[in-house]
Amino acid sequence: MSFEIEAKDLLGRIGRLYTKSGALETPTIFPVVDPKKQELKLSIINKYFKNIITNSYFIYSIFKEPIDVKKFLGWSGIVMTDSGAYQLMRYGVVDIEPDEILRYQSEIGSDIGVMLDLPMDSEESYFSASIKVEETLRRALRAAEMRGELGGMLLVGPIQGGIYGDLLARSARRMSALPFDIYAVGSPTTLLEEYRFDEILDMILRVKLNIRREAPLHLFGAGHPLILPFAVAAGVDLFDSASYVLYARDDRIMLRDRTVRLDEVRADYLPCSTKLCDKPVKEIREMPKMERTELIAEHNLAMLREEILEIKQRIYEGTLWEYLEEKARAHRSLYNTLRIMRKYLKLVEEYDPVTHPEPSGLLFFGDTSASRPEPYRHRLRIRHYYRHPDKPVAVLLKVDFRPYNKSWEYIYLNKILGKFREYIHVYFIDDIFGIVPEEVAEVYPLSQHESWGASEALYDDVAFISKKYKLIIIYNYYINGRNIVNVNNIDEIINILNAIYSTATPPS
Ligand SMILES: [Zn+2]
């Protein structure tokens, strides 16, 4: 096994990936290093990331024969290489065979190599996309056969299909059956450029639905602090990106939730404390272009590192969802990603650990929180696993105090129920979790959450249990139904029970 998982939250995880040059902790980003034009020195990159990616096809086109890639770049950390597929997409020709470029990557000493796939963009027709998927799968079969000859280089299998969900799912299933060390979601570059984050997330989750869950997943070309936490929450472990330097060339400065252009900054200083930002904005603008690009590229890289560290901390805390909700407000497309998560709730629930490492107190639920896994998981239990007691009457209490079983209403009800106690089962009505059986009212997080807005599914829950009980009495909440009585006073519950069961015959 080349990948171990240490901590999880949602589909996100902290892991260790073992390469022949040592382990690296995920999630992480491989900054793209361009052997032909590299503005930011590798010694500076090394301060932020211990792993880089470069294009083996570029190196091949310079040397035509194997060289030592680490010596050539002056890098002692982990090196991943790409195969030139991107050049293929942009320029249409790559004058090297798939087998050859794969072997070449291992010969130059790459730690992680990518097979030559056929990427596609968001404009690709279905017909053309399906041909590319088939050809990529054919090559994947061949690459998997060569795995033993690659000198311990980890092998990446890109999953193609792009925006066509069925192609993507088929491709993911078939790739997952092959022994790749890492899978990758192919070519969402155009989607990224257009900020179509919701579509990217949909692609990632569809891939996750169809691959081995313990396998690490790479997302090509995503390197903005905005998208990173969403992609990690959807199950991405590895990223590569040239954005830190591409943005810098245009004087674009990454911040945690947006990008600003240097010429649009009105304040005297940037809202950041990296080396770049010690200088007044005016001074940065007047720097020679080369020097400025280098400084902004370094700042951008520092922001990416900070984002990765924040995400890791969130995973350890079990508060990744809270973080997504916070970030989602930065862009419309990000807000929609929370809805996409909801589409895949069953998958999210399967991955999300039932107990987080350290439940850090209250869970917070807002207007997008219906997509969280916890209420879904609770509802599954209520529907399928929980044994609703075989009693004739259910009493549903809507109370404010938590834990619910410490509310005065519940305590008082227990005091006055007397002989009726054995005929009734009590549930609490919760805005987020729906109905909560009395005996689990203190189980985390049923009582340990804050919420606003009501659960849409409560009515379904009540309809569900109304088939199991002869009578349902609801206190302090109004729901209509054939065998439902709504009351606003606890004593009324006793009156109703008295009226029905006044005869000596016990209810059955
Ligand atoms: Zn800065």
UniProtKB/TrEMBL annotation:
<feature type="binding site">
    <location>
        <position position="272"/>
    </location>
    <ligand>
        <name>Zn(2+)</name>
    </ligand>
</feature>
<keyword id="KW-0862">Zinc</keyword>
<feature type="domain" description="tRNA-guanine(15) transglycosylase-like">
    <location>
        <begin position="12"/>
        <end position="332"/>
    </location>
</feature>
<feature type="active site" description="Nucleophile">
    <location>
        <position position="82"/>
    </location>
</feature>
<keyword id="KW-0479">Metal-binding</keyword>
<feature type="binding site">
    <location>
        <position position="117"/>
    </location>
    <ligand>
        <name>substrate</name>
    </ligand>
</feature>
<dbReference type="GO" id="GO:0005737">
    <property type="term" value="C:cytoplasm"/>
</dbReference>
<dbReference type="GO" id="GO:0016763">
    <property type="term" value="F:pentosyltransferase activity"/>
</dbReference>
<comment type="similarity">
    <text>Belongs to the archaeosine tRNA-ribosyltransferase family.</text>
</comment>
<keyword id="KW-0808">Transferase</keyword>
<keyword id="KW-0819">tRNA processing</keyword>
<keyword id="KW-0328">Glycosyltransferase</keyword>
<comment type="pathway">
    <text>tRNA modification; archaeosine-tRNA biosynthesis.</text>
</comment>
<dbReference type="Pfam" id="PF01702">
    <property type="entry name" value="TGT"/>
</dbReference>
<dbReference type="InterPro" id="IPR036511">
    <property type="entry name" value="TGT-like_sf"/>
</dbReference>
<dbReference type="InterPro" id="IPR004804">
    <property type="entry name" value="TgtA"/>
</dbReference>
<dbReference type="InterPro" id="IPR002616">
    <property type="entry name" value="tRNA_ribo_trans-like"/>
</dbReference>
<feature type="binding site">
    <location>
        <position position="277"/>
    </location>
    <ligand>
        <name>Zn(2+)</name>
    </ligand>
</feature>
<dbReference type="InterPro" id="IPR050076">
    <property type="entry name" value="ArchSynthase1/Queuine_TRR"/>
</dbReference>
<protein>
    <recommendedName>
        <fullName>tRNA-guanine(15) transglycosylase</fullName>
        <ecNumber>2.4.2.48</ecNumber>
    </recommendedName>
</protein>
<comment type="function">
    <text>Exchanges the guanine residue with 7-cyano-7-deazaguanine (preQ0) at position 15 in the dihydrouridine loop (D-loop) of archaeal tRNAs.</text>
</comment>
<dbReference type="GO" id="GO:0008270">
    <property type="term" value="F:zinc ion binding"/>
</dbReference>
<dbReference type="GO" id="GO:0002099">
    <property type="term" value="P:tRNA wobble guanine modification"/>
</dbReference>
